[in-house]
Amino acid sequence: MKVWWYIAIAAAVILCAVLVILLKKRRKRREMEQNAEDRLREEALDRVLVGDRRDGKRGTVAFDVKYDQGQRNRKGRGASGGQTPVILQLTEKSELSTRKYMLHAAGKLSIGSQADLNDIVITGDGVEKRQCEIVRIGKQLFVHNLGKTGQVLLKRGRKQIILDREAVELEDNDVLYIGDFTYKVTILRN
Q1: What's the confidence (pLDDT) of residue 15?
Q2: C-alpha 109: how far from its chain's center?
Q3: Which of 14, 55, 118, 155 is the most exposed place for a label (fewest CB within 10 A)?
Q4: What are the Cα distances from residue 44, in Å, to 8, 34, 104?
């Protein structure tokens, strides 16, 4: 009878040791995946800040200044002349980190899980390859959901809006929820 008792205790100890080893391997794999995601996100941010475009050309300045009969016109990349440059600051909050993205919002900015399709790369449950897009039209910034299954939630004060294909204008202090990530919106107009 005592032999079975010793065998059961030995089996339980072995089972616990195997579980501990598996949990350590899983934790290490998650850390490696998170490091890879962080590296991709940093590379995407560097490309946006430097002005690299997907066609291989590199943008050199955020806006050009031209003088026409004594009047100063500013021309944003992808925008019509005479418009005030708009800078979008997104403060990303996740379980592990807080990051700030300062983006010259000229044209489009996309957020999603696939690095070659997006300016900001995030992964996790509920995030599609191209999840959402922020578009500048004139002096306004608009956001809309590109995903079919993933949700993008916009919170403005006490009001919450689930975004769909229809664009909604972004305002200062809005908060975007995409997957496990939270983005606080700050709009700077010069």
Answers
A1: 95
A2: 10
A3: 55
A4: 54, 15, 14
